[in-house]
TrEMBL record:
PANTHER family per record: SUCCINATE-SEMIALDEHYDE DEHYDROGENASE, MITOCHONDRIAL
Organism for this UniProt entry: Pseudaquabacterium terrae
SUPFAM superfamilies registered for this protein in UniProt: ALDH-like
Active-site annotation: 260
Name this protein carries in UniProt: NAD-dependent succinate-semialdehyde dehydrogenase
């Protein structure tokens, strides 16, 4: 068993099925590109239904033995996986930055964040406690136990290629489930590396299987898992339309679902807020990964009394952010993931300007002596935002801050909740009573009060309304991969 595998051992470009690294059944491949300049990084298998079925075959065959493995032993495997990830933090961070585009500092931080989930669920594996129920009659004993749901299919997004894999796979393995997975087509290399490290940590063959697929062939891979009754759960992070499709198509076999879907997070600054703290909190929350996160503030509401001063301070901070390739240590905003992402940002900014918004900072693509690729967009601040603009209704998923002016607490709560989404919300105030009122009133699964950095392995992550259901992280995250069995024994007296 390899404790500290070399880079050659974990840099992989093949599928992993039944403990073997293999090409796609059809031998097809697709290209993984560097978003900084669209250059080729690698080619990986372009899988189809046969590969998806083979992965389920392997996971189903391995389930009985993995389920029967004592929780403490499963935890020890996860702890070795955690140690292997941590030992490769620098190399993995560079790989994330290369294929996803986030700055190096953020790539390194994501590795630590991903590892924290593996460690957390290693510790939670031995805490899947049941209950003893007081019997209503003599001569009877009643109790509950928690059991793994079975084979789990995990489908992960491109914006956090390490963290999303860890946040889904670690609790599944801790619970005693086996896994089939498909990483996002833009960022498969990080996922393959993490699987190779799990293999080196001693994970038995078939317990964890991963297949890659292009955007064109992804529906066929996922469709095979949706139709297969042996797949008992799907965990997906991505868009709301795809989440709704998964919910519909999984109904035939009544799979358990965890769906972490779109967001439209409000960020509210009240007159009584610490304005400097609010600006810094917004910088942290909004510009992480260049604004390409599901919990990024998408609508920034600032009360009239501090609006102008807030915009002045924010514009100064945003204008000083350094845009550049992820491999440069001083870069703070890297490239967007691909051309489609930049086109959407441009569409939102152009629509806002046509509807009366004013560009304070940014509002354009970036090409200069440092930036040579097509996928960079300048950090942007807009004022005069209104609910009629596209950026108020859709996630921009980029470094754009639209500022809305408001006057009363009731007004801003109504506007903040006027969306089908409900993932995260933020607000800044020094009024304790207001803090309780607004936290209660926001229709979101996550609330940040005077805080822009929300995520932690010990906290439940998930949304309400059309942002999905289920929770990841925390002790509740383990329950999402288990079901509850009630046992009753009678005639004991």
């Amino acid at each position: 068993m390899t404790q500290n595998p070399s880079r050659a051992q974990w840099m992989r470009t093949q599928n992993f099925i039944a403990g073997r690294w293999c090409d796609a059944d059809r031998q097809d491949v697709f290209a993984v590109l560097n978003p900084a300049d669209d250059s080729l990084i690698a080619q990986v298998p372009d899988s189809g239904p046969a590969d998806a079925a083979a992965a389920v075959d392997a996971a189903h065959a391995a389930f009985a033995a993995w389920r029967a493995t004592p929780a403490k032993q499963r935890a020890q495997v996860l702890k070795r996986w955690f140690a292997a990830i941590t030992a490769q933090q620098e190399e993995l961070g560079r790989l994330i930055s290369l294929e996803q585009g986030k700055p190096l500092a953020e790539g390194r931080a994501e590795v630590a964040y991903a590892a924290s989930y593996v460690e957390w669920f290693a510790e939670e594996a031995v805490r899947a406690h049941g209950d003893v129920i007081p019997a209503p009659v003599t001569g009877r004993r009643m109790w509950t136990v928690k059991e793994p749901v079975g084979v789990v299919a995990v489908i992960t997004p491109w914006n956090f290629p390490a963290a999303m894999i860890a946040r889904k796979i670690a609790p599944a393995l801790a619970a005693g489930c086996t896994v089939v997975g498909k990483p996002a087509e833009d960022t498969p290399l990080t996922a393959l590396a993490l699987v190779a490290l799990a293999e080196a940590a001693g994970l038995p063959p078939g317990v964890l299987n991963i297949v890659c697929a292009s955007r064109e062939h992804t529906p066929a891979v996922i469709g095979a898992w949706l139709a297969d009754a042996r797949v008992r759960k799907i965990s997906f992070t991505g868009s709301t339309p795809v989440g709704k499709l998964l919910a519909r198509e999984s109904a035939a076999t009544l799979k358990k679902l965890s769906l972490e879907l779109g967001g439209n997070a409000p960020f509210i600054v009240f007159d009584d807020a610490d304005i400097h703290a609010a600006v810094e909190g917004l910088i942290v929350a909004k510009f992480r990964n260049g604004g390409q996160t599901c919990v990024c503030p998408n609508r920034v509401y600032v009360q009239a009394g501090v609006h102008d001063r807030f915009v002045e301070l924010l514009a100064a901070r945003v204008g000083a952010l350094k845009v550049g390739p992820a491999q440069r240590e001083d870069s703070q905003i890297g490239p967007m993931i691909n051309a489609r992402a930049v086109e959407k940002i441009e569409r939102h900014v152009d629509d806002a300007v046509r509807h009366g918004a004013r560009v304070v900072v940014g509002g354009r693509r970036v090409r200069d002596g440092v930036v040579h690729g097509p996928n960079y967009y300048a950090p942007t601040v807009l004022t005069g935002a209104t609910p009629a603009m596209a950026l108020a209704q859709e996630e921009t998923f980029g470094p754009v801050v639209p500022v809305f002016r408001f006057h009363s607490e009731a007004e801003v709560i109504a506007q903040a909740n006027d969306t089908p989404f409900g993932l995260a919300g933020y607000f800044y105030t020094r009024d304790i009573a207001r803090a309780w009122r607004v936290a209660d009133a926001l229709e979101t699964g996550i609330v940040g009060i005077n805080e822009g950095a929300l995520a932690a392995e010990a906290a439940p992550f998930g949304g309400v309304k059309e942002s999905g259901y289920g929770r990841e992280g925390s002790r509740h995250g383990l329950d999402d991969y288990m079901h509850l069995k009630y046992v009753c024994e009678g005639n004991l007296s």
